[in-house]
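Nucleotide-binding universal stress protein, UspA family
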Amino acid sequence: MRQVLLPIDASESSQATVALMSDLAKSLPMQVTLVHMLSSVLYDALDSRYQRILHAHSPDEQEGMALLEKTREKFPLETEVSLVLAEGNVFKDLAALLTSESPDLIAIGSGNLDAKVKSVILGSVTRYVLTHVDVPVLVAGKERWRTEMKHILVPIDGSACAMRAVTAADEMAVAFGARVTLLYVIPDPRKEGVIQGHEAMLLSEAKAEPDAREALEEAQKAFTESIHTEARLAKGVVSRTIEKELANGDYDFVVMGTEGMGSALKRLLLGSVTRHVLEHVKVPVLVVR
């Protein structure tokens, strides 16, 4: 049984995450800890550690506890749900609190739509949590959860991190009877802005496709035999290719890693890919480290 931490507030994004996790709890055994962090100017200004609130006295504390109790009612009766109310810095203290609980998974909302630039901006708290915790993070999608999981997309790159994402995707696919599409995008150095000599580029391109096919084959073998998997190979700008695949496919869920294998450039590249996917897709994304 996995331990899931779910930081919440009254926002639409947070409540969408609650709806998602409540539905997942029907198929995946889990113990849920709901966390509500009250922001404090004192904690924001000073290097102070957060404080748990055991008894709600002030109006803000009572409102926070009421939100936690109301949210608990949305989970199945058989799901064990505990409540944590705390006061502190909503960035560093929230990340510290989440880490201190040693969860198997953190679920959090995605962010909001910036009307000025007409693009989806990943929430600042979500972004901070993603870069400061070492456990898998499930980021809810921009649209309301469709209460079913039939098709999962797993972008891979041949790294150990990608294989951990495969393991997580297999567990989800088994629990929900979903089919899985594995996508390996060979980066186009010309479009990714990678600087290479002509000969080095030709050598890299010649080796890329066999390596990609080998990685796809290895990933397919890692899935439970009963799970239907499909392997796809593409070439181009990695982030945009994944975004296009999601837009054109009937996907309900994405599972992907946060860092690639090898050079710092590769790790940076996949990190930017993960950020791009989180900022542009509408379905839930499980980010595995």
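thats it. The chain has two domains: 1-144, 145-283. The two ends are 20 Å apart (CA to CA). bye
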